[in-house]
Each structure stands twice: as C-alpha cells, then as structure tokens.
C-alpha cells in the first residue's frame, strides 16, 4: 500500500506555502497526500492580503472524513489560526490515535503577517504539543513558545529541551535566522541533542521553506524512516528546493519541491553534517 500523509493547514492561493506546498512535497516523496484546510489566505509572493477562517467544526469534519475512511501513516499541522481549531484538531488526533504527528507551529508568514491569533499559543502548548512526535519551530517561534531568548546554537538546544519538557516527544529548532557560514538546526529526540548543518545558501526564492521542510519530514516518517533519517532527508530536500527556487511573481518566489525529482550533479547528501551537541 502507498504511504499516506495528511496535512492540516491553511491554503496559500499562491501555491508556495501551506497545504499546496505540503501536497507537492508529499507527492515528490512518493506519498499520497490528503488535506484538512483550516483557513483560506489571499496570498502571493509579496505577502498575505487576507485571511478567512474555516469554522473549527468543519475542520474536524474534514479530518474525520479522511481518517475514518482512508487512514493515515503520518500527519502534519501547519497554520491553525485560532484556539478553537487547535482544540478540535487535537481532539480528532487523539480520537483517531495518530501515532506520527509533526507540529509546525506556524505563527508568522515570511512577510510578517500573523497566522496564529495571540490567544492561541496557550492552546497549542496545552492541547497539541503533548501529541507531537516532533515539533519544528524556527527561532522566533521557539522564543514565543518557551519565553527564552535564542541567540546561539547552545540556546537552541536549551529551547529544544524545554519544548520536550512541555510535552513534545522531540523537537527540531530551525536555525536559519542565525548568522554564520552554515545553517544549523538542532534536534532533541528526548535523549540526545544533535546538530544538523548545511552550507548557508544565498538564494532569493525561499517562500514556503518551513512548510516544505516539515512536510518532507512527515513524508519520510510515513514511509517508515527513523526520526533522525527523516530530518536528514528533509534537510537535503530543502537545500535542493532553495537552490532551484522559482522566480515567480515580483516578491520572494517559492522554493521548488519539484527539484527533488530532477537530476542534480551536486551530492547534496554529503553537504549535510551532524554531530552531538
């Protein structure tokens, strides 16, 4: 049977992030993708022009429809927007006993638009983190969730440990917003801290990278990869997607998930290094 993955996230009308980016990523990994849409955004490469919330009970109806009939091997959440949606999503995941859950705590669009209401952070921590196989915040999201200030790789490790103490089974903090010649992420699997790095890429078209990275991890988990191997595959995938980003629109174009299927002479696997922190 083909591996199956469900994304519970917002729709990006420009196709670069959100549900659209997740489904493209699932597909290039050979995984059958399904979706439950939490919000509609009017969005392009320049920013978010508008957001329309999907009622929480209809989000739940979408999840139930998929999981009672088609089943799933892994689930990811992205933009959830408000506390009522978070509570319904968490209740559905508990009811259906989802065992592989990647939580991407989407709070802001790359252009700065708020994608999570200010009163929803507590619900995310209380209701969703305890269900997470992996939570994947960037540095700003990790600071908002933990209250810590993060300015170094060591502090990323402290925040990752704290997020696991708050309920997540594992945490990957993305370090793209730190300076340095390498882009370093920190993975805490509940026991060990691991740094995973790649050379920092100076590329202009990076819209949707956070969504695509967490979707790639979800797809790899759905196919049976271990957590560390899933994260490593996703790092290779997103490096290729960034380098081959698409110059669409007049703003920051999308990272290109289709690059995973194209021939590339560069050995991207050798570019990913890892070591214990």
Describe this structure in words.
By secondary structure, the chain is α/β, with parallel strands linked by helices. It has one domain (4-276): UDP-N-acetylmuramoyl-L-alanine:D-glutamate ligase. The chain has 8 helices and 10 strands. It has helices at 18-28, 56-69, 83-95, 121-128, 139-146, 153-165, 209-222, 227-243; strands spanning 4-12, 32-44, 47-53, 74-77, 101-103, 134-135, 171-173, 182-188, 193-199, 273-276. The strands form 2 sheets. It has a 6-stranded mixed β-sheet with strand order 3-2-1-4-5-6. It has a 4-stranded antiparallel β-sheet with strand order 7-8-9-10. A hairpin with an 8-residue loop joins strand 7 (171-173) and strand 8. The longest helix has 17 residues, at 227-243. The mean pLDDT is 93.
The CATH class, by name, is Alpha Beta
* CATH topology group: UDP-N-acetylmuramoyl-L-alanine:D-glutamate ligase
Number of helices: 8
Count of discrete domains: 1
Evaluate the radius of gyration: 17 Å
CATH architecture: 3-Layer(aba) Sandwich
The largest pleated sheet is described as:
6 strands, mixed
Strand content: 15-25%
Give structural attributes.
4-stranded antiparallel β-sheet, single chain, 277 residues, globular, 10 strands, UDP-N-acetylmuramoyl-L-alanine:D-glutamate ligase, alpha/beta
Topology, please?
Elements: E1 4-12, H1 18-28, E2 32-44, E3 47-53, H2 56-69, E4 74-77, H3 83-95, E5 101-103, H4 121-128, E6 134-135, H5 139-146, H6 153-165, E7 171-173, E8 182-188, E9 193-199, H7 209-222, H8 227-243, E10 273-276
Parallel strand pairs: 1-2, 1-4, 4-5, 5-6
Antiparallel strand pairs: 2-3, 7-8, 8-9, 9-10
Helix pairs in contact: 1-7, 2-3, 3-4, 5-6, 7-8
């Amino acid at each position: 049977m083909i591996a199956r993955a469900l994304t519970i996230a917002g729709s990006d009308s420009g196709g670069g992030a959100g549900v659209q980016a997740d489904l493209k990523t699932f597909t290039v990994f050979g995984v059958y993708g399904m979706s439950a849409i939490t919000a509609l955004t009017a969005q392009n490469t320049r920013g978010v022009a508008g957001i329309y919330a999907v009622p929480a009970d209809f989000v739940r109806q979408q999840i139930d429809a998929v999981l009672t009939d088609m089943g799933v091997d892994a689930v990811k959440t992205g933009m959830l927007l408000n506390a009522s949606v978070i509570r319904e999503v968490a209740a559905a995941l508990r009811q259906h006993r989802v065992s592989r859950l990647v939580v991407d705590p989407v709070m802001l669009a790359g252009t700065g638009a708020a994608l999570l209401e200010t009163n929803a952070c507590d619900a995310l921590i209380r209701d969703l983190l305890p269900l997470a196989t992996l939570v994947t915040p960037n540095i700003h999201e990790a600071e908002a969730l933990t209250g810590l200030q993060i300015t170094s790789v060591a502090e990323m490790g402290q925040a990752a440990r704290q997020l696991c103490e708050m309920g997540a089974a594992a945490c990957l903090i993305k370090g793209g917003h730190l300076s340095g010649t390498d882009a370093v992420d920190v993975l805490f699997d509940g026991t060990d801290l691991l740094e995973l790095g790649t050379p920092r890429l100076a590329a202009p078209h990076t819209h949707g990278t956070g969504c695509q990275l967490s979707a790639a991890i979800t797809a790899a988990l759905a196919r049976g990869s271990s957590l560390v191997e899933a994260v490593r595959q996703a790092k290779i995938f997103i490096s290729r997607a960034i380098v081959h980003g698409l110059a669409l629109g007049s703003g920051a174009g999308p990272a290109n998930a289709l690059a995973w299927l194209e021939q590339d002479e560069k050995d991207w696997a050798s570019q990913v290094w890892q070591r214990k922190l």
